[in-house]
Amino acid sequence: MREGEDAPEKFPNPGFGPHRPRRADVDPRADKRAERQVVALFALSVLGTIGFIVAYFAVPPGDTIASMRTSNLALGLGLAFALLGIGLAAVHWAKSLMNDHEKAEDRHAQRSTDQTRAEAVQVLRDGVQDSGIGRRGVLKGALVSSLALFPLTIALPLIGEVGEDWNVSKFKRTLWAKNKKLTIDPSGRPIKAADVTIGSVVHVIPEGLDESEAPLDEKAKAVVLLVRMDPRDIKSEQGEGWSYDGIVAFSKICTHVGCPVALYEQQTHHLLCPCHQSTFDVADSAKVVFGPAKRPLPQLPITVDDEGYLVAQSDFHEPIGPSFWERLR
């Protein structure tokens, strides 16, 4: 628009360009070929779902990193093909078989009239007829089969294997026990209180963990962070007498989503989780001072034995890690 000219009240309607028919619109063989392609994609989804179910039972996670990696890969591939088949089939169906004529509708009042509603219902019916699902029996069967089977990829892990142990009490305990020595991770060497200097941080595990035949998840729950500070800096503890001469021990598993907490700032006594920046004050019962975590890190009660080695007074007094069902707090 040139300077000084009045703006038009509305722009002219450019209309639609000439419609260009697709090959499937004019060639029955191309139409049939496109239908077979859509059916094949839905069949791919069915095979993906079946593969997921087979992998769920035939390739369990096991207790080693390699077995977990293999199980996750098999499940991931099955889930990927199950979703990919449905998605590609829907796109190819819409682009090659459904009506592709451009349509435009004028804006109407927010509240439709009864006649408009009746017309909308008719449009839906026309859409169903346009899709050709009523006269394409094989295509309809492939669609129903893929959509009916796919939810199994979500439901099966939730239901669990036959005979799955649903006892949640196992989440409330770890391998720590009374008089269990604190040993350096990963060497397993017992540690004396005199070996820990003020400001130092030591990653510790229960004595005998390497020789233990406990499952990998049980070992992962037992990791602990040991910190020594000036006893005068300790503001509070989760239990009376749970520290020794300024040495405190807390679970390394973040109470947000279970990441390893390990970044200690000596001047502020803050402990940072690198995943989502939850920050805990070690000097004040590991209470949350920042971030999405909602609970302090559980404290491990510790003391020393007759030889001066650091030992646990008991297991944690509360479940470690993120929340789960039946957890009271």
From TrEMBL:
<dbReference type="InterPro" id="IPR036922">
    <property type="entry name" value="Rieske_2Fe-2S_sf"/>
</dbReference>
<dbReference type="Pfam" id="PF00355">
    <property type="entry name" value="Rieske"/>
</dbReference>
<feature type="region of interest" description="Disordered">
    <location>
        <begin position="1"/>
        <end position="30"/>
    </location>
</feature>
<dbReference type="InterPro" id="IPR014349">
    <property type="entry name" value="Rieske_Fe-S_prot"/>
</dbReference>
<keyword id="KW-1003">Cell membrane</keyword>
<keyword id="KW-0001">2Fe-2S</keyword>
<keyword id="KW-1015">Disulfide bond</keyword>
<keyword id="KW-0812">Transmembrane</keyword>
<dbReference type="Pfam" id="PF19297">
    <property type="entry name" value="QcrA_N"/>
</dbReference>
<keyword id="KW-0679">Respiratory chain</keyword>
<keyword id="KW-0472">Membrane</keyword>
<feature type="transmembrane region" description="Helical">
    <location>
        <begin position="141"/>
        <end position="160"/>
    </location>
</feature>
<keyword id="KW-0479">Metal-binding</keyword>
<comment type="similarity">
    <text>Belongs to the Rieske iron-sulfur protein family.</text>
</comment>
<protein>
    <recommendedName>
        <fullName>Cytochrome bc1 complex Rieske iron-sulfur subunit</fullName>
    </recommendedName>
</protein>
<dbReference type="InterPro" id="IPR017941">
    <property type="entry name" value="Rieske_2Fe-2S"/>
</dbReference>
<keyword id="KW-0813">Transport</keyword>
<dbReference type="InterPro" id="IPR045603">
    <property type="entry name" value="QcrA_N"/>
</dbReference>
<feature type="transmembrane region" description="Helical">
    <location>
        <begin position="38"/>
        <end position="59"/>
    </location>
</feature>
<feature type="transmembrane region" description="Helical">
    <location>
        <begin position="71"/>
        <end position="94"/>
    </location>
</feature>
<keyword id="KW-0560">Oxidoreductase</keyword>
<keyword id="KW-0411">Iron-sulfur</keyword>
<keyword id="KW-1133">Transmembrane helix</keyword>
<comment type="function">
    <text>Iron-sulfur subunit of the cytochrome bc1 complex, an essential component of the respiratory electron transport chain required for ATP synthesis. The bc1 complex catalyzes the oxidation of menaquinol and the reduction of cytochrome c in the respiratory chain. The bc1 complex operates through a Q-cycle mechanism that couples electron transfer to generation of the proton gradient that drives ATP synthesis.</text>
</comment>
<dbReference type="InterPro" id="IPR005805">
    <property type="entry name" value="Rieske_Fe-S_prot_C"/>
</dbReference>
<keyword id="KW-0249">Electron transport</keyword>
<feature type="domain" description="Rieske">
    <location>
        <begin position="245"/>
        <end position="311"/>
    </location>
</feature>
<keyword id="KW-0408">Iron</keyword>
